Amino acid sequence: MKKKAFGVLTFAALALSLGTTMAPQASAAPAAYTCASGQLCVYENANYTGSVYIVKDDLSDFNSAALHYTNGNPLQDSISSVINNTGQCVEFSTDSGFGGSHQYYTRYSRTAAVAYNDEFSSVDRYNC
């Protein structure tokens, strides 16, 4: 009886250990993009999450430039958070051609939730 009980316990322990080692591992969520020094990064979601677009120039009209985040979604009227890791000031506008309402960012600044969520249509970078 002891031999049989030992065999059953050994088999159960082996099955349990195989079940835990062979179970699929949960995949970690992709890390948010880290905005590097010298970059102006805009994020599709608040708190610097979601897809990202790196702004390299002044852009008077996001829509006509056919700009897209890394996931393919259009940039027009979709920015929710901003990191300005540049030595320039930045002005985002709710209308194309730098019109409408404005939100300003000083050098090396950030905001996790922009005041005009999903409304920006143009951006101007300038020395300050």
Structural class: alpha+beta
Overall mean pLDDT: 81
**What is the radius of gyration computed over CA atoms, rounded to a whole number of angstroms?**
25 Å
Form type: globular
Number of strands: 7
| Superfamily (CATH H level) name of the domain at 40-126 | Crystallins
Helix-residue proportion:
10-25%
H and E order = HEEEEEEE
Question: Main β-sheet, in a few words?
Answer: 4 strands, antiparallel
What is the level-2 CATH architecture name of the domain at 40-126?
A: Sandwich
Tell me the strand percentage band.
25-35%
Give the helix tally: 1
CA distance, first residue to last residue: 86 Å
Structure explained in plain terms:
The chain has 128 residues and is of the alpha+beta class. The protein has a domain at 40-126: Crystallins (Gamma-B Crystallin, domain 1, Sandwich), CATH 2.60.20.10. It is 16% helix and 30% strand. The chain contains one helix and seven strands; from the N terminus they run αβββββββ. It has one helix at residues 2-22; strands at residues 40-45, 49-55, 81-84, 89-95, 99-105, 109-111, 122-126. The strands form two sheets. A four-stranded antiparallel sheet has the order 2-1-3-6, with no helix packed on it. A three-stranded antiparallel sheet has the order 5-4-7, with no helix packed on it. A hairpin with a 3-residue loop joins strand 4 and strand 5. It starts with a helix and ends with a strand.
